[in-house]
Structures are given as structure tokens and as C-alpha cells.
Predict the structure of Pentapeptide repeat-containing protein.
Amino acid sequence: MNTRDFFLALRQGETNFSGLDLQGLNLTLEVVLEVNFSGSNLRGAILNGADLLRCDFSQANLTDAKILGADLKAANLTEAILTNALLSASDFSGAKLCRANLQKAVLGGTCLRGANLRGALLRGASFECADLTGADLLGAEAKRSALLAAATLEQATMPDGTVYEFFTPMA
């Protein structure tokens, strides 16, 4: 389904796009709330500046997606594939990223306050200036040094289960 057909269906009230091939979909600066993209192929999608509150991206393929400055508060990205995705300056507050694959993803300046990243694959991901306040990283595969060097971790549960009382990276 191309971008034009997607918007036509959306305008007609469709909110279930699960399991569809939406590769390269462009939602730049669009408002798309509570839409189901679960299991969809969104490889290379462009979601820059989009308002995607409470959307379901569980098990979706977002490899190489560009999600810059987007609002994904309370979105479900459980088991989503976000390998090599650019997620900078986006808001994932309260989002579910359990067992998501974020290997080599760029999360610079991203807000992950209260996000659930339990069991997520974070190897090679960049967290420069990211806010993981209150995030749950229990069981996540990540280099502790990458998290400590770059992210705000106040009250975050680390992969080994320890909880940081307060930590802000040095400028």
C-alpha cells in the first residue's frame, strides 16, 4: 500500500493496517492516532514530526525508519524491529518497547521517560542526551557503559535490576 492509498483508507475511517506492506510510508508531520500497524512492514518509513500517540507497532518492521521529532507517547512497539532506525528527538514516554530490536538505532535526545524496554536488544544503540528517567531496562541487552555515558537514568531500572537513584551524564 502506498502513502496515497494509506491516507485514502485513513480518511474513510480505517484504523487497522496490521500485517500490511507499508514500506517507505511517509507520515511526515501527520496526526495519526490510535492506529494499528502491528506486524506491518514499515521498513524505511518516514515518520518525522508525526503525532502517533497510542499507535500499535507491535512486531512491526521499522528497520531503517526515520522517526525524528515524532510523538509516540504510550505507543506499543513490543517486539518491533527498529534496527538502524533514526529516533532522535522523539518522545516515547510511557511507550512499550519490550523485546524490541533497537540494535544500532540512534536515540539522541530521545525521551524514554517511563518506557518499558524489558528484554530489548540495544547493542550498538546510541543514547546521547536521551532521557531514560524511570525507564525499565530489566533484561535488556545493552552495554552498561553506553547507557551511563550518555543518558539521564534517574530511577531507571538497569538491565541487571539495579535502580539508579539519580544520574545525569557529565556535559
Summary: Residues 1-171 form a domain with the Pectate Lyase C-like fold (CATH 2.160.20). The helical segments are 3-11, 144-150. The chain has a mean pLDDT of 92. The first helix runs from residue 3 to 11.
